[in-house]
Amino acid sequence: MIAAAIHSGIQVTSGAERVPPGLARNVMTISGRELRDAVRARWFVLYTLAFAGLGLAISLVSATATGGSGLASFGRTTAGMINLVLLVVPLMALTAGAGAIASDRERGMLQYLLAQPVSRLEVLLGKYLGLAGALLSCICLGLGACAGVLAWKGMGTDPAAVLWLAGLSFGLALAMLSCGVLISTLAGRASVAVGTAVFAWLTLVFVSDLGLMAGAMALRMRIEQLFALSVMNPLQVFKMWSLHAADASLDVLGPAGLYATEEYGKWLHALFAGCLLAWIVVPLAAAAVTLSRRSPI
Amino acid sequence: MNRVIGAILVCGGAWLARAGDTPASLDHEAPARTFASRQSTLAGALSARIAAAQAGAVIEIGAGVYHEHLRIDKPLTLIGRPGAIIDGAGSGDIVEIAAEGVTFRGFTVRNTGIDLEQENAAIRVLAGRATIEDNVLEDVLFGIDLRSAPDCVVRGNRIGGKALDIARRGDGLRLWRSDRGVIENNVLHDGRDAILWYSSGIKVRGNRSDDCRYGLHLMFSDDVVIEDNTLSGNSVGIYLMYSAGVEITRNRLVRNRGPSGYGIGLKEADRFSVRENLITGNRVGVYLDGSPFTTKQPGVFTRNIFAFNDIGVTFLPSARGNEFTDNNFIDNIDQVAVSGRGALTGNRFWKGERGNFWSDYTGYDRDADGIGDFVHESRTLFESMTERNPEMRLFLFSPAQQAIEFVGRAVPAVRPEAKFEDEVPRMRPVEIGFAKAESGVRSMTLAATAFGLLAIGGGVLRAARKDGGP
Predict the structure, then answer these.
(1) According to the model, what pLDDT value does residue B420 have?
(2) Which residues sit opposite B334 in a β-bridge?
(3) A69 reaches B (C-beta below 8 A)
(4) Is B59 helix (H, G, I), strand (E, B) or coil?
(5) Which segments of chain A have a pLDDT < 70?
(6) Domain range holding A264?
(7) Three-state SS at A248
(8) What is the average per-residue pLDDT within B286-302?
(9) What total number of domains does chain B contain?
């Protein structure tokens, strides 16, 4: 289906003069198809419902727990949201990315697609952007619904914090999508790719944090080492950045947060942005290289 | 050019004025206007009027900028009319009150020196029964400094510090061995501390302190009443050391953060009560170190709101003999923490039928008497971990934290001991009148935000569907 659509799209663009179609145009065509397929897929509907549902539950519970006092600051609501994003968004993005190339390869679609006048980079970018669009939609719908409930319940949650949370969630989703796509290009089969993606999710969400905790306690790690190691995890970067954006200070995270605030101060935004950007660009570049070297079969 | 003309005009004015007044020098600040308005704006004019006045006289000072350093050495009433500005030109103290019974009202005093060792102050009071009222102090190192000045009234002043980093600033307000003072309705901002040391029987009411270091710092000051103050954005709201008989009532302690970051800190204080305060958004709401110092009389904490602090109340192991009743503990990340390890033996979280409201209470109330049917006890594995290793707070809000807490609930072997118990936890928060917040405007923007996000999400979906062919 995708290939057929691409085929028609490219015929239109290339036209009689046989001008090679522009990169942007091909990418847009592929991403449009990918987005369309994604939002019709079952995984997208399920993830969106789960994300929005859990988010609504958190909003309602925290609205009743506060007893409608109307007081608000950085509370359990925002903490719950961050927690939810940390669980759901990476899983969604990793598995979506993992399905992108590997399943096409398995079904022979990739071979067919690449027989069209499109480059491998165009295919990769197109698929990436299409999936990114689907993830953006999912995040906005979920957080939008939560914000709606909070507004209705008269909670004093800061709108700017919600917007930051949405933006940063999307950043995290892009990073995880890159990793997913890399896994997808490396894996031989779709099932392997998805399995690896789930394993990667488990590692990033639980294993690395628990390992770091144990290591820090056992090795009596210094604060700066602990902070440096945790900044390597994109999930921690997302978490710290959203706290920093909501509150301008990381002292809620104890000594390590104080260290970060004092040491980096206003450069924290840049530091976090750099880390997250690296997690977006590096795996995607690695995926492009892998795809260009491997046989499409 | 203007300045030159102004200087010439002022010179002329000075020459004209010389006949009836004291010798004058140039006024560079407000040249033409001083000449036009009145001769008393010339330097030295105020000192001369003070020197000429009888004890007990009332001196009214008109508008103008006075570049002077005053010493008031007899009981006078100085009243500044609107626009009366005394400018220290960036050196030394500005007003020194050396006689009892002086009233100093309505002036703008600005621009002290920045010498921390000399403690350059806008108004220094060295004698009792002074009244310092309705003044505006701008760009001052120390604001109002009372040294051995009992029975003074400091009311309605606005004290703004210098734009220096905190270590180079001075104290906006300081009382040193000055008993029975009244500190009322003052506003302090961007200073270092407000200090009450060795001064007993003080009333501190209705003041406001923003972005200072210590909102109020008491040491060896007994029988002090602290009421209706708002202390926000400071490093510490109220810090009470080695003092007895202090009542802290109806204050708002908001967002006092940073490495110390306490709403109220009590170190070896005795006979204190903390009632009806709003304590929200601080790093630590209340910090208890060795208080009450002698356990004859319990430390009373009642009808306070502890909300959205990182830690509601921190106890050092030395703190015992406190009673918490009818407080609201709402969504503090740690409601109650013990620094180091250990249980909160010797502190009570309920008395008779009066417990507290805990937003994390998980029980229910089948007999509908407003009191939960089960004991509220706080025991989470992650909290007990962070209390021993504070750096583990870095993992707050992460799923790993949830995993650890789940293990703590599921596996009895690693389940920590309960930190404290509240046998009669309230099901609903205590209504405390003054603490309602205004969130109407925010709700609207929040609703707009929600709508915007939904529109983006829906828009992407729509575009994707419309794009469709087969």
Answers:
(1) 87
(2) B311
(3) yes
(4) strand
(5) 1-21, 64-76, 156, 248, 297
(6) 2-293
(7) coil
(8) 90
(9) 1
Q: CB-based contact (8 Å) between B438 and chain A?
A: yes
Asked if residue B6 is part of any domain, the answer here is yes
Which tokens in the block code for residue B385?
């971990």
Which residues fall within 8 angstroms of residue A279, CB to CB, at 6 or more apart?
A: A175, A178, A179, A234, A237
CA dihedral (A60, B430, B287, B422) positive or negative: negative
Does residue B318 form part of some domain? no
Q: What does the DSSP 8-state code read for residue B426? A: B
Nearest to B69 by CA among B34, B35, B110, B29: B110
- The beta strands (E) that lie in B148-235 are given as 153-155, 158-161, 173-176, 182-184, 187-189, 193-197, 203-205, 208-210, 214-219, 225-227, 230-232
Residue (of B284, B288, B294) closest to B267 by Cα position? B288
Separation of alpha carbons B58 and B103, rounded Å: 9
CB A62 within 8 A of CB A146: no
Residue B206, in any domain of the structure = no
What pLDDT score does A160 carry? Answer: 86
Q: Give yes or no for A67 touching B (CB within 8 A).
A: yes
Residue-wise DSSP of A68-90: T----SS-HHHHHHHHHHHHHHH
From the CB of residue B363, how many other CB atoms can be counted at a distance below 10 Å?
14
Single out the residue of B264, B268, B284 nearest to residue B276, CA to CA: B264
| Model confidence pLDDT, tens digit, residues B236-276 | 999 999 999 999 999 999 989 877 889 999 999 999 999 99
Give the 3-state secondary structure percentages of chain A, helix then strand then coil, rounded to 5.
85, 0, 15
Percent of chain B with pLDDT over 70: 87
Token pair in block for residue B436: 């309602």
Could you tell me if B304 and B330 are in contact, meaning their C-beta atoms sit under 8 angstroms apart? Answer: no
- In-domain check, residue B107: no
- Tally the domains of chain A: 1
Residues B61/B103, Cβ–Cβ less than 8 Å: no
The Cα of A256 is separated from the nearest Cα of chain B by a number of Å equal to 6
Interatomic CA distance for residues B364 and B370, integer angstroms: 10
Name B396's Cβ contacts closer than 8 Å, sequence gap at least 6: A79, A252, A253, A254, B333, B386
ipTM of the complex: 0.84
What are B82-133's pLDDT values in tens digits? 999 999 999 999 999 999 999 999 999 999 999 999 999 999 999 999 999 9
Under the banding of pLDDT at 50, 70 and 90, the label for residue B44 is: confident
Whether chain B has a CB inside 8 Å of the CB on A211: the answer is no
Sheet with B142-147: strands ordered across:
B70-72, B95-97, B121-125, B142-147, B173-176, B193-197, B214-219, B236-241, B262-267, B284-289, B311-315, B334-338
A20 at B interface, C-beta within 8 A? no
A154–B439: do the CB atoms touch at under 8 Å?
yes
- Please give the C-alpha separations between residue A272 and each of A169, A171, B28, B392, B395, in angstroms, as whole numbers: 13, 11, 51, 20, 16
What distance lies between CA B190 and its chain's CA centroid?
Answer: 11
| Inter-chain CB proximity A253 and B396 less than 8 Å | yes
pLDDT digits (tens, 9 = 90+) for B329-388: 988 888 998 886 666 778 999 998 899 999 888 888 898 898 999 999 887 888 888 888
| Test mutation, A37, A51, A252, chain B, max B CBs within 10 A | A252
SS3 A45: helix
- Rounded CA separation B295/B291 (Å): 8
